[in-house]
Amino acid sequence: MLIKGEVGKNSFKKKVLLIIFLSTLGFLLSLTIAFALGFNNNINATRYTQLIFGVVGLALPAILFSYLVNKHPNKYLRTNTFPSFNLIINAILIMIIILPLINVMSYWNEQLHLPQALSEIEKTLRELQKTADDLTLQLLTDSSIKTLWSNLFFLAFVPAITEELFFRGAVQGCMHEKFGHHTAIWLTAIVFSAFHLQFFGFFPRMFLGALLGYMLFWSNSLYIPIIAHFTNNACVVVFYFLSARNILTFNIDSIGIHSQWWLAIISLIGLVSLLYILKSQYNTKKENNPL
């Protein structure tokens, strides 16, 4: 019988082992379900496989973990407070305005090389990333309205909820108890980026993870990083849809690169400004509610 909050009495090490156990179990169960349903390698099967893995491999372990470590799981995951309209708009604007900055970071990350002795490992990592990128392109490069809505659901809505429940909700919550806010945010961001298994996109994704972590910290609501995560993914989906329809003729990944470097500067200034506003709102709320 599961007792709510029972594991919360135990050590940090036991909590880490619990979340690893639950996520591993969820991953294996996801694979079992996918194989049982007979999913093959077509695009629609890939979408449903991601749905199953997100729900069974990430969301359910996070919810079960919060139930076991805290008597108030909603409070532990920060899903008990819905954010204000201003916080929502701030989160959306942040994810839109950081695009050029993220592109610059991605470009720099792609230029990194492992030592010569590890050249074969680098070659393998680049091939794996190319395979992942090719699959993503197959999912995105379709001009039909039906596919647009499908991608917004499977590639934006589902990952935003499931990944934020697991990483910002469960993992960051667990790390915070041991290390405090800032260390927990960055450790979770590293785990979040490593989870995606794309070495040559590691640093921009880690930065995004940390950004989402601070959004949770300063808003005290998991809905803010969920909305921000959805906005980030949805922007990519919509850009590729518009490109497939020849409405946009430029590459989204080129914004802020080379001759457009000045867009990255504007992006950085905008990000700092919006984060300052978010943190100011947090400080004001903290002063008004010191307890």
Name the descriptors.
291 residues
Folded structure, characterized:
This protein has 291 residues and is an all-alpha fold. The chain has one domain. Helices cover 76% and strands 0% of the residues. It has 11 helices and no strands. It has helices spanning 12-36, 43-69, 73-77, 85-97, 99-110, 119-140, 145-179, 181-195, 202-219, 223-244, 261-288. Helix 1 runs antiparallel to helix 2 (43-69) and helix 5 (99-110) crosses helix 11 (261-288). The longest helix has 35 residues, at 145-179. The protein is globular, with a radius of gyration of 20 Å. The chain starts with 11 loop residues before the first helix and ends with a helix. The model has no long low-confidence stretch (mean pLDDT 89).
The sequence of SSEs as H and E is: HHHHHHHHHHH
Low-confidence stretches: none
Distance between the termini: 35 Å
Structure annotation, total helices? 11
**How many strand segments?**
0
Instruction: Tell me the domain tally.
Output: 1
Please give the share of residues in helix.
Answer: over 70%
Largest sheet: none
Mean pLDDT: 89
Shape: globular
Strand fraction band? Answer: under 5%
Report the C-alpha radius of gyration, rounded: 20 Å
Determine the structural class based on helices, strands and strand pairing: mainly alpha
